[in-house]
Amino acid sequence: MKHDCHYHPGDPAKWHCGECQVHYCSRCMPDADTRQRKALCPKCSKAMRYLGAATEVVPFWQRIGAFFRYPFHTDPLIVIAICTLVPIIAPANAIGLIIWLVLALALFKYTYAVINRTAEGHLKPPPVAEAFTGSGFSIVILQLLVFVLMGGLIGAAAMIGGPFLAMLALAFVVLALPASIMVLAMERSVGAAVNPMNLAVLISRIGTPYFLLYGYLILLTLASGAAQDFAVSHFPLWVAQPLAGFLNSTFTLILFHMLGYLLFQYQEELGFASDIQDAESLADNHQRDRSSRFDADLDMNLKDGNYDRVQSMLKDALKKDRDDPRRLGQLYHLLAARNDTTELYRYHPRLMAWLAQRNDGDGLNGLIEALQSVEPNFQLDDPDLAVECATSLYHRGHFKPALRLLQDFHKRFPNSEQLAPAYLLAAQVLANGLQQWEKASAFLAFIQKRCQTHPLHGQIDAWLEQARNREPLKGPKASFQISD
Ligand SMILES: [Zn+2]
Ligand SMILES: [Zn+2]
Q1: Domain range for 470
Q2: Measured distance CA(130)–CA(79) in Å, rounded
Q3: Closest ligand relative to 297 C-alpha
Q4: Furthest CA-CA distance within the chain
Q5: Facing residues of 4 across strands?
Q6: Is residue 442 part of a domain?
Q7: Which of these three, 244, 270, 296, is where a domain ends?
Q8: Nearest ligand to the CA atom of 296
């Protein structure tokens, strides 16, 4: 069964919580450890089952071309070349025989590594070193044991039930051989690889595609045999021998890659999980951080309609980092969408600072309207913030609310450094926005009289002149230096 993410329909699920019966994609689980295949359910905190790439693997019958290209990479070509060419030039004595034996073992080991690595999701061949180093040569003996046991099984069947039962046993052994090789490669256990129950379960879980694969295997074996036959009968022996060896090894690699891929494709049914391994997904694994987990939780709760939960999560986050712009923005959008005026009022200084920083005059205008429904005489207590917000409002053409924020500034903040910038802004709103030149002049006159030490005072005559001529009050551009 292929599943989509519960929260992102269309995205393949990578995790499944057996407790909650919910599927999650990788976007929902940014904190998951895909390499260790560990993740905790965001809802119940229980360990989840990793689904790997089972939900997005291309079926093997759609990538036949890729199977044939598989041996034609540097690493497998080197292994094949060494293992088929060296024995030919080796001396024809005991040493030559040992060389031949060792290289045959190496090739054998390499082909089993192909199954393992493919089943784990590596679609590129294993490195050359895999053939010649490390442990794992025992696989050869194990495979021989499997053959012996299978022969014994047929013999036993013949003794107990005569030729008919022997034929039946032979048919089963032949049919189950690829399954047996797969089990042996993955589990390295002779018992598991010859256990008829084990093999029958594997075949029945894969179902029809197993027989499709079987068909391909027969075709490939026939093709390989025909090609080798052609080589032997059409070329001199010194060409035919390495050529046949090369063809044999190449087809074997293709076969084993197919077997591995079948395991990879049916990993979910077979009870293990792996994902396509490449540099990108490894890099992803390193980007596990708290804030992306938090965002994924927010997203899920929003989609579930748990708005109260989202609200309290955001409030908690803002307790830890008072001015986190990301969380402030999320809280603002949530409260605005819910029209929660009480909470908007509670958080208004930080929300307004966030909006002013983004120069969102329209947002500020909407927020102030909401705040006025709670507190009709709403005013800001922070002179710096008041000037900042009024500036944003003025730039977006919201003149009345801008003036409101600056109202009685000299009474509310008599000693503020912001008094001159505030009243210059008020004059600009009145003159440029509302064409009320007399009132604008009055504010300018106030600055002239009361703020003689302020740097803006030097230009006040020019602005008074502009107001008298009913010209727009220009600049000073970026004049509102907000001092902390
Ligand atoms: Zn998702
Ligand atoms: Zn759960």
Answers
A1: 403-484
A2: 9
A3: 1
A4: 122
A5: 12
A6: yes
A7: 270
A8: 1
Ligand found nearest the CA of 43: 2
CA 26 / ligand 2 centre spacing (Å): 15
Q: How far is the CA of 30 from the centre of ligand 1 (A)?
A: 10
Q: Which residues, at least 6 apart from 43, have a Cβ–Cβ distance to it below 8 Å?
A: 17, 20, 22
Any idea which ligand is nearest the CA of 24?
A: 1
pLDDT tens across 204-224, in order? 888 888 999 899 889 988 998
Q: For residues 245 and 352, which has the higher predicted lDDT (pLDDT)?
A: 352
Residues 359, 480 contacting (CB under 8 angstroms): no
Q: What pTM, to 2 d.p., does this model score?
A: 0.57
Q: How many CA atoms lie within 13 A of 204 on its CB side?
A: 6
- Give the closest ligand to the alpha carbon of residue 16: 2
Q: What is the pLDDT of residue 319?
A: 93
Ligand 2 centroid to Cα of residue 41, in Å, is: 5
Compute the distance between CA of residue 390 and CA of residue 165 in angstroms, rounded to an integer. Answer: 94
CA of 300 to the centre of ligand 1 (A): 8
Instruction: Examine residue 370 and state whether it is found in any structural domain, yes or no.
Output: no
What is the structure's pLDDT at 284? Answer: 46
44 alpha carbon to ligand 2 midpoint, in Å?
4
How many A from CA of 272 to the centre of ligand 1?
22
Is 60 exceeded by the pLDDT of residue 281?
no
d(CA 127, CA 134): 12
Number of domains present in the structure of the chain:
2
Q: Residue 16: enclosing H or E segment and its boundaries? A: strand 15-17
User: What's the CA-to-centroid distance between 3 and ligand 2, angstroms?
Assistant: 16
Q: Which of 445, 442, 454 is nearest to 479 (CA)?
A: 454
Q: Which is nearest to 118 in space by CA: 267, 283, 280, 268?
A: 267
> Please, what's the b/e burial string for 297-334 (b: 16 or more CB within 10 A of its CB; e: otherwise)?
bbebbbeeeeeeebbebbeebbeeeeebeebbbbbbeb
Q: Which ligand is nearest to the CA of 21?
A: 2
CA 157 to centroid of ligand 2, rounded, Å: 50
Is residue 175, in this structure, part of any structural domain at all?
yes
Distance from C-alpha of 300 to C-alpha of 6, rounded to nearest angstrom? 9
Note the pLDDT of residue 56. 64
Above 70 in pLDDT, residue 471?
A: yes
Integer-rounded Cα Rg, in Å, for the chain is 38
411 with 264, same domain: the answer is no
Residue that terminates a domain, selected from 254, 270, 286:
270
What spacing in Å lies between the alpha carbon of 324 and ligand 1's midpoint? 25
In a domain, 90, yes or no: yes
